[in-house]
Amino acid sequence: MSTSSARPAGDPTPEPEREPAGATPTKESSLTLERGLNLLQAVADADSEAPTISDLANIVGVSRAAVYRLLGPLQSRGLVRREGSKVRLGLGVLWLAGKVVPQLRFAALPALRALAERVGATVHLTVADGNEAQAIAVVEPSWTSYHVAYRVGTRHSVQRGAAGRAVDLSEEGPKWITSVGELQPGAYGVAAPVRGVAGLRASVGVIAMEPLSPDEVGPLVVRTCSAVADALG
Amino acid sequence: MSTSSARPAGDPTPEPEREPAGATPTKESSLTLERGLNLLQAVADADSEAPTISDLANIVGVSRAAVYRLLGPLQSRGLVRREGSKVRLGLGVLWLAGKVVPQLRFAALPALRALAERVGATVHLTVADGNEAQAIAVVEPSWTSYHVAYRVGTRHSVQRGAAGRAVDLSEEGPKWITSVGELQPGAYGVAAPVRGVAGLRASVGVIAMEPLSPDEVGPLVVRTCSAVADALG
DNA sequence: GCGCGGTGTTCGTTTTACGGACACTTTTGT
DNA sequence: ACAAAAGTGTCCGTAAAACGAACACCGCGC
């Protein structure tokens, strides 16, 4: 939550206060929406056993009448669907997911571009989806005569390529990974995982036609990963 | 807004039974949740221009204070994230999307199984994601000596294979599509698109090792598509 | 038959969310 | 440079919205 460096308005200066016992540090929340999203989450959590209305009322901790009210808006947007008396996730979720990728890409682009121009090679952001990895953003340097063209949307196993293996790189151990000709003969890769963004398995990678100097490029990639993580977190 | 409101009022339940009593199309709704989801949608709709709090207040038609309150729950679940003073979609959406596929698969399985047993060949449900198609459910017949093994998760271009081309089959024209050896030499395919489920581009296909009788199998596939559409809609 | 576990809707009450106002900081503009 | 504009974040009293118990109802099994 807004770990961004620049905090716009002043809240670190509790100067004009007369708040005796600050019970909650400004708990901004809306109970109804909270419950509505709890409901959505409860539906999502039930993988194979579709919950009934009553089940949901129990899980979320509200009356059944409330579940009906909350289900309305959820349903009209296709986030949930009713199948007889069972409730399941709806396809509106997929629509939303389709919208998140461009925004994710957009947010990460500046950091990727900086790296691409710096090292003069193609840079990409890859996210894991199950045990497949997919490139969601690619940036090519603007000043080179030759560089590798890498297509957005490329998918491969998370076990292949520097970018693939990097997404699940353990906390300890090497900070980055290199590969030679794993996905494409003659292609040299360096990649590092993006850490610190909850729910995201991703990596930033560099692809070049000539061997990269790992000691030089590696740290740059790692730094870009941090930048990307900041941009997304 | 969008097409989501295209919910046929009449409950399309060709499913035999289970429907308790006459479902009265009562407009159950919760204003707060409605607004909260509108907010989420507003954030999703802004592809490249990240909206500010004030923007969102204008778009959704509520006071800024309300936006703050609504943003709380949304943010804590990672559905949106704040980037300085801009608001973007969060990664919780991807998490949700990951949960919808198994439920989708589960819902469609009975219809697929029925078809597989009927024609004695492997049946699969394929959904399009961008210009790639991915098999999310595969059912193999239980009584055949030989059948094609097809892996869940297989991806290919939407232009290839009967299942791929079927997802974007226009309303007019053929009801189903056949293919021979397009993805795999010696494999014969018949596929038809799943229609009527808003926001979903999908197809049901049959794969066999021997030529299928289109006139016989085609209508069956189409019928299965309807069944699947009903199960999901 | 009767209870049991479901759904769907109503109604009066009070909790919840509303939005104008304020204090403040950052950016814009002449 | 300074002023004006636009932005954020938070307070408050008020009114409207959401709450949950209760009701009417249906299908199933003991």
Automatic annotation (TrEMBL), chains A, B:
Q: Which UniProt keywords apply?
A: DNA-binding, Transcription, Transcription regulation
Stretches the record annotates as Disordered: 1-30
Q: Which terms does the record give in the GO molecular function aspect?
A: DNA binding; DNA-binding transcription factor activity
Q: Which InterPro entries match?
A: GAF-like_dom_sf, HTH_MetabolicPath_Reg, Tscrpt_reg_IclR_C, Tscrpt_reg_IclR_N, WH-like_DNA-bd_sf, WH_DNA-bd_sf
Superkingdom of the source species: Bacteria
Q: Name one GO biological process term.
A: negative regulation of DNA-templated transcription
Classification via Pfam families: HTH_IclR, IclR_C
Domain named HTH iclR-type: residues: 30-93
What region holds the IclR-ED domain?
92-233
Can you say what this protein is called? DNA-binding transcriptional regulator, IclR family
> Which species does the entry assign this protein to?
Actinopolyspora xinjiangensis
